[in-house]
Amino acid sequence: MINKKSLIISSSVITSFLLFFYFIYYEGNNESAKLWTRYSAHLSFYYFFLSFAASSFNSYLGYSFIKTILRNRRYFGISFAIAHSFHLIALTYFFTVSVEGPSIVSIIGGGAGYLIMYAMAFTSNDRMVKKIGSRKWKLLHKIGSSYLAIIFIYAFIFGFLFSEYRMLYGFYILLIFTVYSIKFFKKINIA
């Protein structure tokens, strides 16, 4: 029997490879490279959001499937890192085959996001929690996930303003702000 950890992580690997093969080998043009970057970002966002929102939604809803996501949040985070690494490959490929180049803001902001993401993925195991300490680990993951959420919001605002997928990007922004609202109100109730 396959355990949930393997299933979650392998789902990100398999789906990322399927996107790669479809957009590069089946389509194989500049437009498909652009679509690959878009869909790989969407895929990685879904994994990020599940790990980012699990505790907030569990504190208010507490459904069994949310508790399952919360118990496996680490693996959704690792799956995000895997899927987002494929997104980095897609971006690199896109900028190689197209006339467009990344902005300096994308290079610095996105580069910092990838460094933070890899630091979080590298420390997503019990051994590293013990090695760096629970307090530092929580701080890294709290600041890191907030930084990544801000990067997603930044990207989604541009998608909302300039893309034909306004409703989807608006929904993503709403999801992130919902999680921040839950966290904010949870803090007020605790204080």
Describe this structure as you would to a colleague.
This protein is mostly helical and 191 residues long. It has one domain. The chain has eight helices and no strands. The longest helix is centred in the first third of the chain and has 31 residues. It is globular. The mean pLDDT is 89.
In short:
This protein is mainly α and 191 residues long.
SS field, number of helical segments: 8
**Quick check: average pLDDT?**
89
Largest sheet: none
Shape: globular
Ranges where pLDDT stays below 50 over 5 or more residues in a row are none
Q: Gyration radius, to the nearest Å?
A: 17 Å
The tally of beta strands, per DSSP, is 0
Q: How much helical structure, as a percent, in the residues?
A: over 70%
User: Which strand-content bin applies to the residues?
Assistant: under 5%
Class derived from helix and strand content: mainly alpha
Count of folded domains: 1
Spell the H/E element sequence: HHHHHHHH
Distance between the termini: 44 Å
List keywords for this structure.
mainly alpha
List the helices and strands and how they pair.
Elements: H1 4-27, H2 30-60, H3 64-71, H4 73-97, H5 104-122, H6 126-132, H7 134-162, H8 166-190
Helix pairs in contact: 1-2, 1-4, 2-3, 2-4, 2-8, 4-5, 5-7, 6-7, 7-8
